Amino acid sequence: MLNNITNIVRSNKNAVMVRIGNGSAKSAIYTIFDTKTQSNTYTGSLSSVRTAWNAHYRNSRQFVTKNGLNHRYMGA
Fold first, then answer.
1. CB within 8 A of 54, min separation 6: which ones?
2. Residue ranges of the domains in the chain?
3. C-alpha–C-alpha distance, residues 17 and 71, integer Å
4. In the chain, at which end, N or C, are there fewer CB atoms within 10 A of the end residue's CB?
5. Which of 13, 25, 3, 12 is nearest to 71 (CA)?
6. Among candidates 33, 34, 4, which has minimal Cα distance to 21?
7. Is 21 or 61 the better-scoring residue by pLDDT?
8. What's the angle, vertex CA 23, arms to CA 76 and CA 34, rounded to 5?
9. Cα 30 to Cα 23: distance, rounded to the nearest angstrom
10. pTM of the predicted protein model
């Protein structure tokens, strides 16, 4: 069920940034799941969660998707 309403926006070895909701990007909620603490560390709008990602998680290696491309920020 969660696959229908969640989309991975960014991921790396330390965390996964997920978009929750099928509506517009402005109305969607974003959250960062920290793999080390096994908890959601930041939740909010795209702007606030992207700022938190850049401050705390961006410098680690990114996972690659099945098609060979890295996850990118979704357009807002």
1. none
2. 2-56
3. 10
4. N
5. 12
6. 4
7. 21
8. 70
9. 12
10. 0.69
What CA–CA distances, in Å, run from 68 to 21, 55, 57? 25, 26, 21
More confident residue, 13 or 63: 13
62: CB partners within 8 A, 6+ apart: 10, 11, 12, 70, 71
Q: By the 8 A CB rule, do 53 and 43 touch?
A: no
Sign of the Cα torsion 73, 71, 52, 44 reads positive
The contacts of residue 16 (CB under 8 Å, 6+ apart) are: 8, 10, 32, 33, 35
Residue-level length of the chain = 76
Q: What is the pLDDT of residues 15-35, one digit of tens each?
A: 999 888 877 777 789 999 998
